Each structure stands twice: as structure tokens, then as C-alpha cells.
Amino acid sequence: MKLLVVEDELKTGEYLRQGLIESGFIVDLANNGLDGYHRAMTEEYDLIILDVMLPDISGWKIIQSLRDIDKETQIILLTAMGSVEDKVKGFNLGADDYLVKPFSFAELLARIKSLLRRNVPQVNLNKLTAADLVMDLPKRTVTRSGKRIDLTNKEFLLLEYFLRYQGEVLPRSLIASQVWDMNFDSDTNVIDVAVRRLRNKIDANFEPKLIHTIRGMGYKLDVNIEEKL
Fold first, then answer.
1. Cβ atoms of 97 and 115 closer than 8 Å
2. β-strand 218-221 against 211-214: which pairing, if any?
3. Rounded CA separation 73/4 (Å)
4. Do residues 51 and 79 make contact, with C-beta atoms less than 8 angstroms apart?
5. Which of 39, 64, 100, 208 could make an S-S bridge to 82, C-beta 3.0–4.6 Å?
6. What are the pLDDT tens digits along the chain (229 aa)?
7. How many whole angstroms separate alpha carbon 89 and alpha carbon 98?
8. Coil, strand or helix at 217
9. In angstroms, how far is CA 166 from the centroid of its own chain?
10. CATH code of the domain occupying 2-117
11. In sequence order, what are the residues at sequence separation of 6 or more whose Cβ sits closer than 8 angstroms to the Cβ of residue 69?
């Protein structure tokens, strides 16, 4: 997968480039808006990470120009501009995601992978499994060791999200945006409460434990680890 990073802060740009290369991506880095604009218009990328406050041409203008010519490259706006109005503007211009600085690289990486997966054809959409847990999507049922587990609609959606991205750390803010369709407020514990209730149903009386807390980062559904921090 080939990514373009448009970031005028040299340290931030190099940090992103190096981290994404180490994560297995091919990465081009543009340190100004005009260079980023030219690359985005003339080359093919799977995803663009775009700053908004650039010294020569704004990220707003770049994304608007790309969408005006029907460039469908997925774009994450990564910016210090974090007001509701800024986010609404970004999404209205065609951004696929919006992340506010300062940011967690782990969360950015999770969001990149989540967006890129949208273009990957899914196989066996009817059932999702982990260990002896089986989720039947058409029937909207969940069983573990053959025993039916009753879930609320939101618990079902949360478990489905965990199963689709099992093995990966999912930050709370990403869970909030993808499952609850809302911005995560760090002063609330709605995600933690929901995960705790889901754990009580699918993990409390079964082995191995599936849902794990990754301290300071989020949650992971993984069959192969036993740590629960």
C-alpha cells in the first residue's frame, strides 16, 4: 500500500514517514502544500494523510481540488484544528477521517488500516469466528461452545467490530466513531462500560479469554494472548 503524507512540520513528517514505513507501507512525504498537491493530483495513492494548516496552500484547498476532479483517494485530515466546525468542514469537503493533534500513532495506524480495509473484498461474510465463538450475521446470533449468548444490538455491533479486526489494538476513540458514530469524550466511560458488559457475556464463563485491555491504548480481541492489563 502506498501512502502520501503532507506535513510541513519536519519532525512530525519524518516521524510519520518512518513509523508508517516500519508498519509496512510505501510512503512519500511532502513538506509543503504545493508539493503535496502536485503529488496527490499526478500520482496514485491508496491513502493520503493531510495537514490543514500548510504555509503555501491549505489542506482545505487540496482536498476540495481532489474531490472536484472526482479523485476518490481516501484522505485522513491530521491537524491541530479540532473544533466541531473544523471537523464538519473537513467531512463536508470529502475527508474520510479526521484526527486532531496531538495524536497517538497507534490510533492513526488503526484508522489507516480501517479505511484501507473498506477497499478489500470480504470473504465469508455470513459468519465471524474466534476460538469457539461463532457470530452468525444473517441470523444475528452468537454462540460460544455451542451455547447461545444473548446480546443487545449495540453489544452485537461491538463484538462484530472486534471480530472483524481481531488481533489489532482498537483505540477507544476509534470504537466510538465506528460503533457509536460519535466523537469520543475522554471524560465519559461509555466504551469501557460497554466492553465490560460484553466481556461478562462472552468471556466470564469461557476459556480462552478473548477481549483484552491494552493499557493506555484501547482493546484487542485476540485468541492467542492471556494478558488482561
1. yes
2. antiparallel
3. 10
4. yes
5. 100
6. 899 999 999 999 999 999 999 999 999 999 999 999 999 999 999 999 999 999 899 999 999 999 999 998 999 999 999 898 999 999 999 999 999 998 889 889 989 988 887 765 555 568 999 999 999 999 999 999 999 999 999 999 999 999 988 888 888 888 888 888 766 555 568 889 999 999 999 999 999 999 999 888 889 999 876 544 3
7. 10
8. coil
9. 13
10. 3.40.50.2300
11. 41
Under 8 Å between Cβ of 163 and 131: no
How many C-beta atoms lie closer than 10 Å to residue 98's C-beta?
22
CATH classification of 127-221, choosing from 3.40.50.2300, 3.40.50.1000, 1.10.1900.20, 1.10.10.10? 1.10.10.10
User: What phi and psi, each to the nearest 5 degrees, are found at residue 93?
Assistant: -80, -15
Sheet holding 147-149, edge to edge: 127-130, 133-136, 141-144, 147-149
